[in-house]
Specification:
By secondary structure, this protein is an alpha+beta fold. The protein has one domain. Helix content is 24%, strand content 21%. The chain has six helices and 13 strands. It has a four-stranded mixed sheet with strand order 3-4-5-12. A three-stranded antiparallel sheet has the order 9-10-11. It has a two-stranded antiparallel ribbon with strand order 1-2. The longest helix is centred in the N-terminal third of the chain and has 21 residues.
Amino acid sequence: MKFNSFFILLLIAISTQCYSQTTESPYYSSVIIGSQQWMTKNLDISKFRNGDIILEAKNPTEWIKYYTEGKPAWCYYNYDKKYNEKYGKLYNWFAVNDSRGLAPEGWRVSTYEDWKVLTDFAGGEDIASPKLRTTIGWENDGNGSNEYGFNGLPGGSVGAYGMFGDIGNWGSWWCYNPNSNPVYGKYLKYDSDRVEDYASYLKTDGLSVRCLRDTIEE
């Protein structure tokens, strides 16, 4: 009987492991930086918080179509899944701003104010960039110290016509603010100590997304 119970538990464990590998994980690695708890990777989900599917743009025509129609969408860098594990997905503004919630339960999409708190903790936005960049993965001698474990990677972006740029040199993240026009993001650049503003006047671009905990959990 003890053997049978152990066998049953083993089957349950294996089943649970397989399930976690084929669905979007409820667990997100995070790090506490000052008074904030940040995800340590870019967002990589294809559903809103309520379970609704977010459209995937698989080519420039679809990327243009979705933002022209004001539809939430995401894509892989260069429409190639090989970039996903390292850099996550690139989302259009309509996905970030959708009322169904892009961030998973218990998290929120970072705001301009959140980045201000982060960069202030890192000594100010004029010198914070190297402290947030990873120690590997940046081209042109652009690696940082990753002092706080933020893991800022140069995932690039996608522009209005569905064309990509800056992977290896820039990392760009949306800042949630539904009332802002233009809409803003933040970016880290390989050759700058400064955390820069990224402005999208026509809301046509696709950037990475980084989330924070609503409340810090130890």
